[in-house]
Amino acid sequence: MKLILSCSICIALIAALAGCKQQAIADNKQLPIDSLIALVNHLKPGLGEFMLQIKYHHDSLGAAIAKKDYDRAAYEIDEIKETAERIAQLNIANDKLTKPFSNFYDKYLQEPLQILAGAASKKDDAALKTNFISLTNNCNSCHHENNMAFMKITP
Question: How far apart are CA 22 and CA 131, in angstroms?
């Protein structure tokens, strides 16, 4: 009986020590992961950088519509969409946003971009012009809703 008790205690001690060693190994592996996460968060562009990309493509879209360059318009619409989706995917935020960006994408951008894409594929100049103004107004509404009304963009 003493032998069984001694063996049980030894097995319990070995298991406990093995568990401690595994925890130390896990902690050692977690440190580089935490470091990489911190680095990625540090290097991740802010909302302003993404908004500058959207503004560039917005202005280029306006120029393409004015020139009746439907292929370029379709490209710019897609770039705005991709940039907005990237903001939502990466959970980019700042202290001004009252909700996650994905809410504003759904509310202000998704539908106008779909309509604009359809108008570009149909080469519908009137629909492009009208909906480009709507897109611009939606951008400004979003800025206003997020206490950034001074960031007014123009068609």
Answer: 60
Domain 47-145 -> CATH class: mainly alpha
Centre a 10 Å sphere on the Cβ of residue 101 and count the other Cβ atoms it contains: 24
DSSP letter (8 states) at residue 44: S
Mean pLDDT lowest among 8-12, 80-84, 114-118: 8-12
* Type and span of the H or E element at 141: helix 125-145
62-94 burial, b for 16+ CB within 10 Å, e for fewer? bebbeeebbebbbbbbebbbebbeebbeeebee
Give the C-alpha separation, 90 to 121, whole Å. Answer: 29
Per-residue pLDDT, 9: 53
Domain parsing of the chain, residue ranges: 1-43, 47-145
Whole-number Å distance between alpha carbons of 50 and 47: 5
Q: What is the pLDDT of residues 110-133, one digit of tens each?
A: 999 999 999 999 999 999 999 999
**pTM of the predicted model as reported, rounded to 2 decimal places:** 0.76
